[in-house]
């Protein structure tokens, strides 16, 4: 990939590039041809790391800056406006939604919220449920 460094201030698509700037790869062919013709740009030598053509970054989906690695509240789940976002979040917490494309957004959101509540209930109530059942049995035996 060829990169071009500006010799003068270049304005294109509402952006301004001061002298010495590297033009972005998305600059139009017409603009670039004009700049080359007038010798307003020169071919720039870039280090290998800068012009790496590896497409591995296409798989990157981004970071969750608000709640990295955590679970979302029911309100946050209801704010998700795309089925694919709900499905991605569900996958991140270990829930398989099956054929999620066939379901409505509301149904997907409720499934995720219910699953999350069940998981939290299991984690918090592992010892408590057993104790409560034992107490109810003992109380029932005392009435006989």
Q: Termini separation (Å)?
A: 87 Å
Instruction: Give the number of DSSP strands.
Output: 4
- Our estimate of the beta-strand percent is 5-15%
Share of helical residues:
40-55%
Number of helices: 4
Report Rg: 29 Å
Low-confidence segments, ≥5 residues, pLDDT <50? 55-68, 127-138
For the biggest sheet, the summary is: 2 strands, antiparallel
Describe the fold and architecture:
By secondary structure, the chain is mainly α. It contains four helices and four strands; from the N terminus they run βββαβααα. The protein has a two-stranded antiparallel ribbon. The protein is rod-shaped and about 70 Å long. The chain starts with a strand and ends with a helix.
In short:
With 144 residues, the protein is mainly alpha-helical. It has 4 helices and 4 strands.
Question: Which helices and strands, and how do they pair?
Answer:
Blueprint: E1 3-6, E2 10-12, E3 15-17, H1 29-37, E4 41-44, H2 74-79, H3 83-92, H4 105-142
Helix pairs in contact: 3-4
């Amino acid at each position: 990939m060829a990169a071009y460094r500006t010799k003068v201030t270049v304005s294109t698509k509402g952006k301004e590039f001061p002298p010495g700037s590297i033009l972005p790869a998305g600059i139009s062919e017409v603009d670039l041809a004009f700049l080359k013709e007038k010798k307003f740009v020169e071919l720039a030598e870039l280090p290998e790391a800068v012009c790496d053509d590896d497409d591995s970054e296409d798989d990157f989906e981004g970071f969750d800056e608000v709640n990295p690695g955590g679970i979302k509240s029911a309100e946050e789940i209801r704010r998700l406006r795309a089925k694919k976002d709900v499905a991605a979040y569900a996958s991140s917490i270990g829930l398989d939604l099956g054929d999620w494309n066939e379901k409505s957004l509301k149904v997907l959101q409720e499934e995720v919220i219910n699953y999350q509540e069940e998981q939290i209930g299991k984690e918090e109530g592992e010892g408590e449920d057993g104790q409560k059942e034992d107490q109810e049995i003992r109380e029932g035996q005392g009435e006989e």
